[in-house]
Amino acid sequence: MLHRPGEAHSVDVFWTGPERDFAGWYFNLQDPVRRTPIGVDTLDHELDLWWGADADRYVWKDVEMFAQRLVEGRYPGMADAIRGEGDRIAALLDVGQRWWDPAWAAWRPDRSWSAPRLPVGWDEVPPVH
Predict the structure, then answer these.
(1) Which of 28, 66, 85, 103 has its C-alpha lying 20 to 30 A from 60's C-alpha?
(2) 61 is an active site residue
(3) Which one of 61, 62, 78, 105 is the catalytic residue?
(4) Residue 122: CB atoms within 10 Å
């Protein structure tokens, strides 16, 4: 995932299967990340773009779900900004702009790495005073 400060999306790379075949790029619309006492936080905006590895172009994802979330009252006053961020990303992709390194598609973790253990309390947010 690439999260740039102040931007309302991330660029995520996806792989599939045990051989980690490149699956595609995912443009996740979300609140800009913000630091918290336990790391970073964001809010997913449901609406996204997906560009599959073998596709000529991206597609919009979860358009109907986004509309449903608006009916439910989620994202009050944010719908235009969320759609605008998606349109901005689509326009950049349409003109061939890439703000990430396409070589990430071939990235492989070191085989000697193990999954780190999460510390006790990692899922508890301390009270803000």
Answers:
(1) 103
(2) yes
(3) 61
(4) 9
